[in-house]
Amino acid sequence: MKSDLDIAKSAKMRPITEIADKLQIPEDDLHLYGKYIAKLPLKLIDKQKMQGKKLVLVTAITPTPAGEGKTTTSIGLSESLNKIGTKTAVVIREPSLGPVFGIKGGAAGGGFAQVLPMEDINLHFTGDIAVIEKAHNLLSALIDNYIQSKNEVGLDPRKVTWKRVMDMNERVLRNIVVGLGGPKQGVPRETGFDITSASEIMAILCLSKDLVDLKEKMGNILIGFTYDEKPVYAKDINAQGAMAALMKYAIMPNLVQTIEGNPAIIHGGPFANIAQGTNSLIGTKMGLSLADYVVTEAGFASELGAEKFFNIKCQYGDLSPNAAVIVATIRALKYHGGVPLKELTTPNVEAVRKGIANLEKHIENIKKFNLPPIVAINKFATDSEEEIQLIKDHCESLGVKVALNEAWEKGGEGAIELAKLVKEAAESCPGCFDPLYELDWEMEKKIETVACELYGAKNVEYTVEAKVDIKRINNIGLNRLPVCIAKTQKSLSDDQYKLNRPKDFTVKIRKIEIAAGAGFVIPIAGTIMRMPGLPKIPSAEKIDIDNDGNISGLF
Question: How far apart are CA 307 and CA 313, in angstroms?
């Protein structure tokens, strides 16, 4: 089988003007980035045209080191929906360079279910993430300059909460000291770097309506506290105007194409274990304005990315999804059933039977939002017919629709059955979506509802620091914001070593951070890595380019 890169290179791409024509976008409205990429102006978003359109979320069971193929499924499903005569656009996130050069890889799909041009999308693309990095670090520079030069509000250097970011996995920058070298070099203080996808600017971009809203949200970024514990925001140091100016083009979604020449919109890329984990609200609304169906995805599993998609993005954006696809693989279920990673390709029906409890929980989670779940079995060559049939029989016993997904190998032809089930479910569910909680609930009630209902926790405990944080959040009037709980993606619980479907566990909230600009608070459960490190043998060591510009080793 060819590599993903070889398949992408052998595909015949259409000029982006032809892709835009499928969505009835005039060529004059395109901001072209070469022959195959364009940015779309926000004026194309039309509330009236969005009425009656169908929004389908692709989520997954709890992730494993083997990978589940959520993006591949999203792209393949959109190809299949187009094949059965439904005008569909796939709307997904932008890849971060950190995983591309690290271990995970990119986010352009795989096999014959990819978005193109694959190399550009996985590398610099249109520079959106680089601009987010610049806007974030501009605020960092302005903060240190403000402390050094005037500090009229009395910002305490020890209480600055805003770090710096870089779109690369770089463990040595997690904790640093700045301002060394004497009085002219700034005020010494401890800080650090996060990866750019973890920036609040990324979260803000993906929840903004337009440039004015973006600028207002940037002004509301909490940067720290004064010596007497008063909050200090980016607007207090007049940072939001310059930051928003940098985002003039980054706020516009990017139009590309699938291997089969169907439209794909790519915009934004926040992580799902510390932020909302979905593409931009602007990108989703753009898709709903231009196509009849939009297939989108949320990071990790139903209790993380999907939960935040439903409770944060949909509530803020007044979106009403119509169906949800849960991606499952035989090998992932075997992993949750206790099989070691190196043995996942060996048939083991009993392990699948044990691991299916994890899938059951994610099915239950989707139903809690009053949406019809459809299980997509992302098929691999090592899957046995007996293993596949076990999942099909189990889903049918639960009254849940299930289909094989072979889009990686066969493109749109490989997910026709899945597309038909999704279309049937979406058309039977107009306006049936319900969020899990109301935004005006007390913060503890929101946290406990998510933890107990979706994770399956018995209860929630708060450290003394977390209780102090709650009191502070109440005092500054931010207690009605949605909660964006940060926890491991490797388990339904907050303990990464508890696989399958753990029960009777306690979620421990260590502290609660404030993302006032993005419009949510972040309860931290466990330790969350915001600046990953590179593995012993990073993917970057395999990537190369020749004198003609041909890239190799990129997946």
Answer: 9
User: Does residue 310 have an active-site annotation?
Assistant: no
Active site residue 43: no
The DSSP code sequence of 499-542 is -S---S-EEEEEEEEEETTTTEEEEEES---SS----SS-GGGG
DSSP character for 298? B
Which pair of tokens denotes residue 309? 């998609």
Closest by CA to 136, choosing from 198, 72, 216, 74, is: 198
Average the pLDDT over 117-138 and give the result.
Answer: 95
Chain mean pLDDT for the chain:
95
List the helix and strand counts (H, then E) for the chain. Answer: 20, 24
Q: Catalytic: which of 380, 467, 472, 480?
A: 380
Q: What is the per-residue pLDDT across 483-499, written as a single tens digit (0 to 9) for each?
A: 999 999 999 999 999 99
- Where do the domains of the chain lie, and which CATH numbers do they carry? 4-126+250-427 (3.40.50.300), 129-245 (3.30.1510.10), 443-525 (3.10.410.10)
Catalytic residue chosen out of the listed positions 272, 415, 451, 525? 272
How large is the C-alpha radius of gyration of the chain? 23
The number of C-alpha atoms within 13 Å of 293 and in the hemisphere containing its C-beta is 30
Q: Is the pLDDT of residue 529 over 90?
A: no
Give SS3 for 214: helix
pLDDT tens track for 434-464: 999 999 999 999 999 999 999 999 999 999 9
Selecting among 64, 71, 72, 73, the annotated active-site residue is: 72
> Does residue 525 surpass a pLDDT of 90?
yes
How distant is the alpha carbon of residue 340 from its chain centre?
Answer: 28
Taking alpha carbons only, the member of 361, 281, 286, 290 closest to residue 328 is 361
Classify strands 373-378 and 401-405 as parallel, antiparallel or unpaired: parallel
Write out pLDDT tens, residues 229-264. 999 999 999 999 999 999 999 999 999 999 999 999
Beta-carbon contacts of residue 546 (< 8 Å; ≥ 6 apart): 552
Q: What is the pLDDT of residues 105-120, one digit of tens each?
A: 666 888 999 999 999 9
Active site residue 104: yes
- Which residue pairs from 185-191 have beta carbons closer than 8 angstroms and sit at least 24 positions apart in sequence? 186/144, 186/147, 186/148, 187/144, 187/147, 187/148, 187/157, 189/157, 189/158, 189/160, 191/160, 191/163, 191/164
Active site residue 141: no
- Burial class of residue 126, CB neighbours in 10 A (0-12, 13-18, 19+): buried
Residue found by looking up tokens 């602007």 in the block: 282
Mean pLDDT: which of 59-73, 204-218, 269-283 is highest? 204-218
14, 104, 174, 392: which one is catalytic? 104
Q: Are 357 and 328 contacting, i.e. CB atoms less than 8 angstroms apart?
A: no
For residue 473, give the nearest of 507, 523, 508, 437 by alpha carbon. 523
Q: Residues 243, 249, 252, 258: is their CA dihedral positive or negative?
A: negative
Please report which confidence band the pLDDT of residue 553 belongs to, taking 50, 70 and 90 as the band edges: confident
Dist CA 463 CA 469 (whole Å): 10
Answer yes or no: are the C-beta atoms of 76 and 415 closer than 8 Å.
yes
